[in-house]
């Protein structure tokens, strides 16, 4: 017997023995199934199923860093001109579950602003079907101009704590909503000029149409109760958003505010007034896929001034928005406001990261 035969015979014997031993061993346990995170496409992009549940969750957020130069009075004056920087951030958690009574949603937003150095719950609410309870955006249309200092209308913080109902499946793009809120936050307006007072109860309502080839239209109203006397504020506003062309859109609105004795109604510059008529027109044009330009003008007619210097007010902005990368935009804007004996110019640059 030669060496080759011996080697082949030994190998065959070992294989046979291994097979016999394997047959006598107990069966190995199957590996445990791994519950991988799965994409949830029922509510749009970014949602995933929480493992072991039917609840879909989404994380999102935004960070903004800006620098602003403000020129007061129209003259270069180091005593009055200002250069300021600001950073703010927010993180959002959105959880949704389908149920027999409609989609059950819980939403929570944490915000950080370096000007106050506080971490706040900007929004926190529970939504079941058409009903929303908690701290959330009012149903009233708060849209102003396009851009950084977009300048909302009327007094009040349009994010408040309360309950609202918004029905958006009336057919044909129509919707209707109303809400009542209790607000203990200072009333602020996100413009260059801010003023604030305390509010008691506030309410809002809206009716409109959206998703049309030509754009959208709505009529909204607000009510702010302070002491249930002549200081309460009422307001109404009509807004139209037009798709003029594929790359051009326009926004126009008109509003009227009745402030009673004027103690709690400020014009855009922060001066007291009993009644204000508010008119605005804005346009935005998408020059290229990453580049958009916009401009807007707003005029406030002060019907009955309480402050001695509460004159009619004009405000305008002109800006550019450029997408550096998906979710990363660089913005620049020039803002100007003026009354009879006063004017202010501001230049703002802002970097925005959204995910």
From TrEMBL:
Forms passive diffusion pores that allow small molecular weight hydrophilic materials across the outer membrane. Keywords: Cell outer membrane, Ion transport, Membrane, Porin, Signal, Transmembrane, Transmembrane beta strand, Transport. Belongs to the alphaproteobacteria porin family. Consists of 16-stranded beta-barrel sheets, with large surface-exposed loops, that form a transmembrane pore at the center of each barrel. The pore is partially ocluded by a peptide loop that folds into the pore lumen. Transmembrane segments: none annotated. This is Porin. The lineage of its organism: Bacteria, Pseudomonadati, Pseudomonadota, Alphaproteobacteria, Hyphomicrobiales. InterPro entries: Porin_alphabac. Its main location: membrane. One of its GO terms (cellular component) is cell outer membrane. GO terms for molecular function: porin activity. It is found in: Cell outer membrane. It comes from uncultured Pleomorphomonas sp. The keyword Protein transport does not apply. It is a multi-pass membrane protein. Residues 1-22 form the signal peptide. The keyword Chaperone does not apply.
